[in-house]
Design goal:
Distance between the termini: 83 Å
Number of helices: 7
Radius of gyration: 23 Å
Length: about 260
C-alpha cells in the first residue's frame, strides 16, 4: 500500500488539475460566445444576419449566413478582438447575388460602407446614386461641415470618378455637429471599436492597402504599422478618431524613409 500511495496521490492531483483546466477553458469559451452576441457590432450591424459563434479552447468557428461580404470580415474582426480568442475560423457564407466588382452597385455599396462607421457623417441620412462611377449624394446634413466631410469620404472610395453632393442643410442645426452617436450609458465595447476602425480603413481607398495594426483599450485606439508619409499617417488618425465609440487615438505607425539614389 505504501509503495503505491504517492503514485495514487499524484494521479489524483493530476486529474484534478486537468479537470480544473478544462473547466476554465469551458468557462472562457462560454464567455467568448456570450460576449460576441452582446457586442455593439453584432447587435447593430449584424443583427439581421444569421451567425453562429462556437468557441473551443479559444478557437472560434463562425458559421451561418450574412447579407454582404463586408459583414463576413466585420464579424471576424469583432470576434478576433475579444479576450481569450486565439484564432477565428470564418465559415460564413454570403447569401444572394453580389454586385460585380467595380460596377456602379459595387461602388454604391463601398461608399455606404465608407460612411457607415463614422459618427460625424450620417450613413442612414445619405442616399447614394452611382452612374458610370460618378456619385451623387442626396439627403439632409446637419451642417455644412457634415456635408463637406460626406463628400470627402465618398471621394476616397475605389473607382469613384466624381462626387456631386446635393444634400440639403437642416434648417435647425443640431446642438453639436460633432455629437457622438452614443451616450456614455451606451459605451461601445473595445472589440467593436477595433472592428469598425479596421473596416473603415479598408473601405477608404487611401488606407485600404495599408497594413495597420489596431487595438483598443477602454475606447482608446492604438495604431501600429507603416505609412508611406506623414500625410498618410495623419489620415489614418483622422479616420480612426471619427469612429463610433473612440475616445482617443495613439498613432504609433512609423513613416518609411525613402532611400536616396546613389
Amino acid at each position: 500500500m505504501k509503495t503505491h500511495l504517492p503514485l495514487t496521490l499524484a494521479t489524483i492531483v493530476s486529474t484534478l488539475f486537468i479537470s480544473s483546466a478544462t473547466l476554465r477553458a469551458s468557462d472562457m469559451d462560454s464567455r467568448i460566445e456570450s460576449s460576441a452576441a452582446k457586442t455593439y457590432v453584432f447587435k447593430t450591424y449584424l443583427k439581421d444576419d444569421s451567425i453562429k459563434t462556437e468557441s473551443k479552447n479559444g478557437v472560434v468557428t463562425l458559421t451561418g449566413t450574412v447579407a454582404v461580404d463586408a459583414h463576413k470580415s466585420l464579424a471576424e474582426d469583432t470576434v478576433a478582438s475579444l479576450p481569450g480568442v486565439n484564432h477565428v475560423d470564418n465559415q460564413l457564407t454570403v447569401t444572394g447575388d453580389q454586385p460585380a466588382e467595380h460596377s456602379d452597385s459595387w461602388i454604391s455599396l463601398k461608399v455606404k460602407t465608407a460612411l457607415l462607421f463614422h459618427r460625424y457623417v450620417s450613413a442612414t441620412g445619405t442616399t447614394v446614386y452611382v452612374k458610370d462611377g460618378n456619385v451623387t449624394l442626396q439627403g439632409e446634413a446637419t451642417s455644412m461641415a457634415q456635408k463637406e466631410l460626406t463628400t470627402e469620404y465618398a471621394k476616397d472610395v475605389d473607382n469613384v470618378k466624381s462626387v456631386q453632393n446635393d444634400m440639403t442643410i437642416a434648417a435647425t442645426p443640431a446642438a453639436s455637429t460633432n455629437a457622438p452617436a452614443t451616450t456614455a450609458s451606451e459605451k461601445i465595447d473595445d472589440a467593436s471599436i477595433t472592428a469598425q476602425v479596421k473596416a473603415s480603413l479598408f473601405a477608404h481607398h487611401s488606407t485600404s492597402a495599408l497594413h495597420t495594426g489596431v487595438s483598443t483599450t477602454d475606447g482608446v485606439v492604438t495604431l501600429s504599422g507603416i505609412a508611406k508619409n506623414d500625410a498618410e499617417k495623419s489620415l489614418v488618425s483622422k479616420l480612426a478618431n471619427d469612429i463610433n465609440g473612440v475616445t482617443d487615438v495613439i498613432n504609433n505607425m512609423t513613416v518609411t524613409v525613402p532611400v536616396a539614389a546613389n
